[in-house]
Design brief:
alpha+beta, 4 helices, globular
Length: about 150
């Protein structure tokens, strides 16, 4: 029996809020660092959009999937890059998924310190104050991508 990858689907209220935050980002208004992510759909080939919290850790930029193995994560794995938009500014980037759980745990802890007020509910009880072992156990459920400059 294979275990299904963790994914917490957004409620209809969260979907409406995402549309509002995405619209604001497209029009140049960031809510506490949010931007709109666009990544090419692996099946449709169309750009799919969702608001995200860009996270900077030790001088590098990261995207952390609080909701788990979502559609944008699957698309990012296939596309290996995308766009971040805030108003007229569009930042094209490459993305590399972080495979090392010890590295991911450090990034996720810092992410939760910064964004926990907004995303703790998606981490199944894990917070910035959780033990290293608890964070390591949560790593497989929360993909992390390092963002680089587009070639």
């Amino acid at each position: 029996m294979t275990q299904q990858a963790y994914y917490l689907r957004a409620s209809s209220l969260a979907q409406r809020l995402n549309r509002i935050v995405g619209w604001l980002a497209r029009h140049g208004l960031s809510l506490d660092g949010s931007a709109e992510l666009s990544v090419r759909g692996r099946r449709s080939g169309q750009m799919q959009r969702i608001p995200v919290n860009m996270h900077t850790f030790e001088g590098e930029r990261y995207l952390v999937s609080a909701r788990g193995h979502s559609q944008w994560v699957r698309n990012m794995r296939a596309a290996a890059g995308g766009e971040l938009r805030l108003g007229r500014r569009v930042d094209h980037f490459t993305a590399v998924e972080i495979a090392d759980d010890a590295q991911k745990a450090r990034i996720i802890r810092a992410y939760l310190e910064r964004w926990g007020w907004q995303v703790d509910q998606y981490f199944q009880g894990v917070t910035a104050k959780s033990t290293d072992a608890e964070l390591l156990a949560a790593c497989p459920d929360h993909p992390v991508f390092r963002i680089g400059a587009a070639a």
